[in-house]
């Protein structure tokens, strides 16, 4: 249970790649996270260092990523941080991966339209009976309707 869970805010740097694997759907993309700071000499915001993470999504999250994200989209990713070191062609390489738990558009920088995906039907279970929609238009005093409290009118000041 000693995992490092982080929340990274950045932009999708590569088009998500979707694969159907033996263990289920998988998607990956690169996330660019650039720090910004106020340069007091110029009195303007300046971009700092950019960190790149490879984001991995599995199962339903992977399918939703492939249908929702494009290069340049501002996103928020929460997931498990995995830092890997290896030697390639005699050089040491370090990479940071995020095993995503949740991904969403960053609504501080734009709007998004949410569409719920359908859930697969359970094999033997019967569908739940439909509940009737409550009648919000019932007149006060009729069965089950709340009677609004009347507030006294303020006295006129002359």
TrEMBL record:
<dbReference type="Pfam" id="PF00436">
    <property type="entry name" value="SSB"/>
</dbReference>
<protein>
    <recommendedName>
        <fullName>Single-stranded DNA-binding protein</fullName>
    </recommendedName>
</protein>
<dbReference type="InterPro" id="IPR012340">
    <property type="entry name" value="NA-bd_OB-fold"/>
</dbReference>
<keyword id="KW-0238">DNA-binding</keyword>
<comment type="subunit">
    <text>Homotetramer.</text>
</comment>
<dbReference type="GO" id="GO:0003677">
    <property type="term" value="F:DNA binding"/>
</dbReference>
<feature type="region of interest" description="Disordered">
    <location>
        <begin position="109"/>
        <end position="158"/>
    </location>
</feature>
<dbReference type="InterPro" id="IPR011344">
    <property type="entry name" value="ssDNA-bd"/>
</dbReference>
<feature type="compositionally biased region" description="Low complexity">
    <location>
        <begin position="145"/>
        <end position="158"/>
    </location>
</feature>
<dbReference type="InterPro" id="IPR000424">
    <property type="entry name" value="Primosome_PriB/ssb"/>
</dbReference>
């Amino acid at each position: 249970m000693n995992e490092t869970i982080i929340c990274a805010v950045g932009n999708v740097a590569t088009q998500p790649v979707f694969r159907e694997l033996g263990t289920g759907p998988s998607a990956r993309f690169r996330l660019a996270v650039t720090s910004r700071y106020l340069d007091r000499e110029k009195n303007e915001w300046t971009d700092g260092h950019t960190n790149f993470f490879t984001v991995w999504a599995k199962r339903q999250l992977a399918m939703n990523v492939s249908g929702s994200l494009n290069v340049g989209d501002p996103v928020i990713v929460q997931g498990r941080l995995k830092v890997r070191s290896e030697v390639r062609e005699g050089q040491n390489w370090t990479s940071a991966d995020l095993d995503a738990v949740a991904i969403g558009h960053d609504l501080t920088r734009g709007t998004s339209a949410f569409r719920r995906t359908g859930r697969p039907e359970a094999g033997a279970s019967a569908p739940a009976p439909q509940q009737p929609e409550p009648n919000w238009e019932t007149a006060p005093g009729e069965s089950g309707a709340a009677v609004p409290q009347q507030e006294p009118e303020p006295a006129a000041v002359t």
